[in-house]
Prior knowledge:
Protein name: Alpha-glucosidase
Structural class: alpha/beta
Shape: globular
GO molecular function: alpha-amylase activity
Family: Belongs to the glycosyl hydrolase 13 family.
InterPro entries: GH (IPR017853), GH13_cat_dom (IPR006047), O16G_dom_2 (IPR045857)
Low-confidence stretches: none
Bound molecules: 1-O-alpha-D-glucopyranosyl-D-fructose
CATH topology of the largest domain: TIM Barrel
Pfam families: Alpha-amylase
Amino acid sequence: AKTAPWWRSAVIYQIYPRSFADANGDGMGDLNGVRSRLPYLAALGVDALWLSPFYASPQADAGYDVSDYRDVDPSFGTLDDARALIRETHEHHLRIVVDLVPNHTSDQHVWFQAALAAPPGSAERARYIFREGRGPTGELPPNNWTSNFGGPAWTRVPDGSWYLHLFAPEQPDLDWTNPEVVAEFQSILRFWLDLGVDGFRIDVAHGLAKDPALTDISDNGYLLTAASNGDHPFWDRDEVHDVYRGWREVIDEYGDDRIFVAEAWVPNPDRFAQYLRPDELHTAFNFNYLQAGWDAAATRKVIDQTLGELRDVGAPATWVLSNHDVVRHVTRYGGGDLGRRRARAATALMLALPGGAYIYQGEELGLEEVLDIPAELRQDPIFEQTNGERLGRDGCRVPLPWSGASAPFGFGPTGTPWLPQPADWAAETAEAEEADPGSSLWFYRTALAQRRRNPALGEGDLRWLETAEGVLAFRRGADFACVINFTDAPVALPTELIRAAVTLASSAADEGVVPAATALWLTI
Ligand code: TEU
């Protein structure tokens, strides 16, 4: 019998290359650093890696501003290093997914440079979204849209025209109604597919299509309301689906093992599911799950909604708790010992749910958000543009601690990491946790190993059990069960599970009870 495609149940580990491992000692992680840690990743027990962008980039937004989609930035290595990484990842029986940034290029991309050099109305400008301003002399932006990073979404060029950027001014938005743009990205897909990658994570997948009338917006909040129905001028418009149908045709030429993962912040589950129609994208991060917080009822609601909507389109669910854009979940759940305890329980729940899951580098070590990075060392454009009102995303991007007692904690052979590491990270290095069977690292390894062996886990059914308030419990397959206690006091095991054997406990458990802030896996 044909087994289900790998990605329907995959656990995918996100690598943020500049903060993962630094082989050349310049303080920035690089592709050769990733190569050197492939044994660690294989031993962790994940199925695939997703790498945030490592392409040529001026790094105005840490690589999400791409100046050449077919080359590697010198700070990360060379195209040959990328080829070697793809080959060696496969030799370790892991798959590799790369990031694709189609909403915008860098302002240093040849296309944008050509657009700046060409007159208004030219074909060069038509690849981006240039417009004349409002006001008597065009001195006001064409409309009232604001950038996700703060400030107006428009920047004026010397001849008086304005261009649109939903993110930093260094990230001009492409015009996806232009056939040249469509053709160029299909060619970029083929370039990386030919190099052997197993898929693409699509950045801001819900943002490519814009209202051609550029209508002013009344509610310019970043997230759509749950009631939204494709009527927002730039998020989640129906036209975006044409792009993905075209891409699906391209990727299907390479067999049925290569995938698209959408980064689509679309809270309406029905609208979200539309990205996962059989002729579009394969999977998408489930951000509603990430946002449910440490809350039994909210978590169960998201699980039910997700599974219901995705069943209708035939797509597997994927669950995610952390990434390079959000505060690490240990910290979101309260930080310190309590936050770590809850985070472990939440991970056990996530890995027991139907479908696939994402792990963000460092969460397997139980890392917390770094909150005390001095203002002058912070690099995220969100921070710069808002004069310190928002801390930005640097706190989850601090270079990983691998070994040793002081910075750079084995991140690189020498050198000062591009963001400072907390002085007290010695107990949280991969090396220290490797030596401690009670560590977060061993918890992840054990959970992933059990998940891999157990046919009830990954894609499949889920049957809720009756529980007390603040507790979730469910069965999967013939004999698997998971129970998680979100409350601050121990609870009795649900009656159905009293005779079951505990195979995984996120914190030490006495017989018959689920301790506070704890998840258990059981065999019935
Ligand atoms: O993120 C898009 C996105 O949704 C972010 O703006 C998100 O809202 C924000 O980071 C939350 O704090 C993607 C990338 O993941 C992000 O790193 C990039 O900055 C952004 O696209 C622009 O490319």
